[in-house]
User: What shape does this take?
Amino acid sequence: MDYCSLYTLCKSRKSIRDFATTPLTHEQIQRLVDIGRTAPFASGRKNWNIHVITDREKIDRMASAVDQESAQLKNYILPEYADKFGGYANYFSLFKKAPALFIPVFRVSPTLQILLGNHCTPEMATMERDNMVKSISCVAMLILLGAQSMGLGACYMTGGLVAGQKLQKMLELPPGQEIGAIIPVGVPLNKRSA
Ligand SMILES: Cc1cc2nc3c(=O)[nH]c(=O)nc-3n(C[C@H](O)[C@H](O)[C@H](O)COP(=O)(O)O)c2cc1C
Assistant: This one.
């Protein structure tokens, strides 16, 4: 692929949050997982995986958990900012409209913490975690572009992670594994939805 084609693909990508109910085909799902797995990765380890959720009931339960958490958080917001927060938080669960969620999941490998013991500074520990989050961002970006190239819509979402622990339980992730992002994918309902 030449630069112009790639640039056109990147420029045409926009976040899509409204989807037709049309399910993704097995081939579409596999292609998106395959392209995500080509991402570069930090610390010499692909310490992440891509979970795909197509179970409508599960997606609805995940969105409800996020909405409940947002409603709780709203109680702590200064009254003058409550409406603003409510509008912002509405975006946290918009993945509910998609027929499929691509969820990169990572596990922090505390290599420096093990090698350096007490000499591992908080900054180094943060860096080790950030490396995994950055790796996941590469995965997510490729899934977004892959979806765009296939005529599908997608959106990179992390707002739902306000309910991260509940979602981790719903996905039955083993201890230590964390959700990096939630990427709803489907046939776009409108060209652009916000
Ligand atoms: C790290 C990250 C987290 C995001 N989280 C959300 C989210 O929780 N909900 C949402 O609707 N959009 C989310 N977005 C999408 C942004 O709102 C969107 O990318 C931005 O407005 C630019 O629009 P575009 O993607 O159409 O170019 C997120 C984007 C990024 C990069």
